[in-house]
Design goal:
The structure is a homodimer of 234-residue chains.
Chain A: H1 2-42, H2 45-76, H3 80-111, H4 125-145, H5 148-178, H6 183-215, H7 224-232
Helix pairs in contact in A: 1-2, 1-3, 1-4, 2-3, 3-6, 4-5, 4-6, 5-6, 5-7
């Protein structure tokens, strides 16, 4: 009995440590996005280089957390909710790693913009990126507390990010039409905009994993209203 | 002893059935991509609608295989190689589902191109898409046989897809510059090209999961040469 409690205590400590690592990874990814946005906005090449250098840290964290998850499944044979937590974590870190890639891509665009006058095309990315960072911040917060109500709220925010993205693309298109020699560089900025818009989709994925963990129900491919219904069910 | 063999026989049958489902899902995704390409090429709206309708089948297969994987972990508590297989499958189906999304996106572009003369912009997508489909076909084949040599070969093919993609984008850019009123539609075609290029990255991911399963080594974030070295090690 005592031994059982001891083992289960160790198990909980291990699970808790993995969760903490996910949040650390999430914090790093959030910082990477924020630095990439600043690098683009202020044309800060040194900061852009740092973002690219640090991308391997995000990758290494993904690999290491993945290993911890596989180890805990093999060693502790978790069932039910514990197992769902491990599966939710394995999926969450994949999305976090891809968000890290977005930051690195944005940093490359900053480096590949030698002409200062081209910075005007980057201006429209800032509010878009701010929204994406806010969404990431909120979903990490929901993850820390495993709060399904908060997760469902973040899930809904993606529509706003999509509208903002559409507006950015329309604006960039008019720049393209005004002067066709800007097309190659504006395309780079558009790729960044699209990558940022995808950050919202990845945050939605993480919301879905939180709900999967807490409610034991897979809500991927459901709309916001159907997700609300799942949440209301006991 | 007999009972043990019986249970292990059942377990193997369950694992085998999940693997078969992954291959069925892969086959469906390959077909979706192929139909989407034809729909774009021949401006076949009916076929495009079918691709969009069938996307939910791909999604449902992902959810169902995911459930089988969680169930087998909880019930059978697989260790070592068996566990790696289940983890590899959980990750593989995420990538397959996203490739399915690419097919649906291409189908939408076909539907949103009412003007027959715009079809000329779609022509350049065909060889790109053919390459991506071939890569998917080969990686599914490597998955079926869990053949790491074949996986490493497919992994290398992505460079060729990237070069083809760059060529397509350059060509589409010249169309944009020739007549700026084509910009909005050409952008749609460019998004498709980019999505197809990402199919290659997702096939590379699946190659990495195959190597992870067989060799027990996580080769994500390694270049092709380092992967070769992992393969040579016993």
């Amino acid at each position: 009995m005592q031994l059982g409690r001891h083992i289960s205590g160790q198990f909980n400590a291990e699970l808790e440590s993995i969760r903490t690592n996910v949040l650390t990874m999430g914090g790093l990814v959030e910082q990477q996005l924020s630095f990439a946005m600043q690098a683009l906005h202020k044309q800060d090449i040194e900061l852009a280089r740092q973002v690219i250098r640090d991308d391997h840290k995000v990758n290494a964290m993904e690999v290491s957390i993945d290993e911890s998850c596989t180890r805990i499944i093999a060693k502790r044979q978790p069932a039910a909710k514990d197992l769902r937590l491990v599966i939710a974590i394995i999926k969450t870190i994949t999305d976090l790693e891809r968000i890290g890639d977005v930051a690195a891509k944005m940093a490359y665009v900053a480096i590949e913009t030698p002409d200062l006058k081209d910075r005007k095309f980057h201006v429209s990315l800032e509010p878009l990126c701010r929204q994406a960072i806010a969404m990431l911040h909120q979903v990490l917060d929901a993850f820390a507390r495993m709060d399904i109500e908060a997760a469902a709220e973040v899930h809904k925010l993606d529509d706003r990010l999509d509208s903002e993205y559409e507006a950015v693309i329309r604006q960039l298109m008019t720049y393209m039409m005004e002067d066709t020699k800007n097309i190659p560089h504006i395309l780079q900025v558009m790729w960044s905009a699209r990558a940022i818009e995808r950050v919202g989709d990845r945050c939605q994925n993480i919301c879905e994993y939180i709900i999967y963990f807490v409610k034991g129900k897979d809500v991927r491919h459901l709309d916001d209203q159907s997700i609300e219904e799942v949440l209301r069910k006991e």
